[in-house]
Amino acid sequence: MLIVNAIVATLMAGLRRRAVRAGLHAARAEQLRAWGETLRDADDPLAHAGTLQQALQQASGDEVALILLRGAMPAMQDDAAVLHVGTPDADQAVGLWHCLRSGEPLGPGTGRHTGQPDWYLPLRGRGECLGAAVLRSRGLQPDEPLREHLQALCDQLGLALQRARSLREERHARDLAQSEAVRNALLAAISHDYRTPLATIMGAASSLESQGARLDAAQRERAGAHHRRGGHAPVAHDRQHASAGPAGRTRRDAALRLGVGRGDRRRGARPCAPPGRHAPRAHTLEPGLPLLWCDALLITQLLDNLVDNALKYSPAEAPVEVLVRREGEQAVLAVRDRGPGVAPAWRERIFEVFQRGEGVEAKRGAGVGLAVCRAIAHAHGGELRLRRRGRGGASFECVLPLREPPAPPPADGDGS
């Protein structure tokens, strides 16, 4: 009976020890899981350095100090380059920097500087070290699994710090790429808007060069006027100009037929028109249209941009239609084509700057023309809308408000 009782007691003691170890392992696993969840949802892992200090103190039962890199590794020991958590003494501070630079654990049972009384644990990422922690070993055996658990806690924060730094670098690179794309788009937009004044200048210069001897003084003066008009600031700034409010525009009563005719003359002079395409001939102007209170230059630019887009995406055999009609107290300037149309998902996005829709990559342009047109329409108290045509194509319609016609000037001698 004594032998049996001894065997049973030994087995029970072994079971109790295993149960204690199992409970300890479960607690450590739960601590690692909770720590990982905390870091996974952290926007700035550096702010959780204090949480790691508390976790290490809870697991080891002793005081802990840490240093964590704020950025790149400094060439020399620089306290301003790291975040300090806790108060290490002078020897521990030197040991922390040595652990940080080597990326290896130091102290009892590590095989490195085993004569030191403290454990130095690195905060490791993938291929680099981003911090270090120091805590007293309290005379634990070299094979104590506690150190492995503490190292796992440190490595989790090291990986989180490395991941956050990679995300910052990615955002910075993306911002640089976006800035470069915007710069390229602006250059393309400027070249897009310089086409018309340059074409005007080239046309006037060509006339003077080829027929200068045949032109009289009045004709040469008109050619020079074309030079001056073409040299004005291009409409690359129309979006800003159109959005500047009434003080930034010059409005007057203008005939809609005049705006359409001006647009045709400008488009006819463009050398960059699609091959085989000319200014549209399908014009429909409702008779009896009143004068429009507008900036004639901006309205001409609006029609010019809309017709340019229609010529790009419309079949060569299909004419582009320009329709001007009255709807109640509003005037509608519509440019209609028989192109592929615009997908429903893009019917609003194409009016945003630098948006060109899907499936049109082969077409030239910077994606600013429709944004300029919408800004011009809004500046006149109207709107620019897109409608799908029944047999294919699109209709871009600028709706502008009408006002009462101005009173005729008083007759001479009426006493007023």
What's this, in brief?
Helix content is 46%, strand content 15%. By secondary structure, it is α+β, with helices and mostly antiparallel strands. The chain has 2 domains: 13-169, Beta-Lactamase (2-Layer Sandwich); 235-401, Histidine kinase-like ATPase, C-terminal domain (Heat Shock Protein 90), CATH 3.30.565.10.
Helix fraction bin? 40-55%
What's the pLDDT, averaged over the residues?
77
CA radius of gyration is 39 Å
Kindly estimate the percentage of residues that lie in beta strands according to DSSP.
15-25%
Report on the structure:
By secondary structure, this protein is of the alpha+beta class. It has 2 domains: 13-169, GAF domain (Beta-Lactamase), CATH 3.30.450; 235-401, Histidine kinase-like ATPase, C-terminal domain (Heat Shock Protein 90), CATH 3.30.565. It is 46% helix and 15% strand. The protein contains 9 helices and 11 strands. The strands form 3 sheets. A 5-stranded mixed beta sheet has the order 6-8-9-11-10. A hairpin with a 2-residue loop joins β8 and β9 (330-336). The longest helix is centred in the middle third of the chain and has 66 residues, at 146-211. The protein starts with a helix and ends in a 15-residue tail after the last strand. Mean pLDDT is 77; it is low at 232-249 and 268-279.
